Amino acid sequence: MTTTVVLDKSLTSLQRHMSEYLPKLEAAIASIHKLRANDPNSEEFSQALADLHVAATILEPYSEGMVEAINNFTDDRPE
Count of domains in the chain? Predict the structure, then answer.
């Protein structure tokens, strides 16, 4: 394969990972904002904490995939 083809495949993979990662990351950030804005004894805080736990659990494997995609793209770039 030519360098251009390999780089295009790496970029496509990176873009796919970013598209899948972003909504999960946005959900985690929204939960963090809710945690900061609500009383720790409130139902809203408890729900935001539960939502953040779910988001963090989902993000963990996505983060690993994202790191791999970034590394592959970086490794495939010409020097």
Answer: 1
Tens digits of pLDDT across the chain (79 residues): 677 877 788 889 899 999 999 999 999 999 999 999 999 999 999 999 999 999 999 999 989 989 999 998 898 888 7
CB 6 within 8 A of CB 75: no
State the residue range of the domain holding 54.
Answer: 3-74
Query: Which candidate, 34, 37, 21, 3, places its Cα nearest to that of 70?
Result: 21
79 located within any domain: no
Cut 0.85: pTM above it:
no
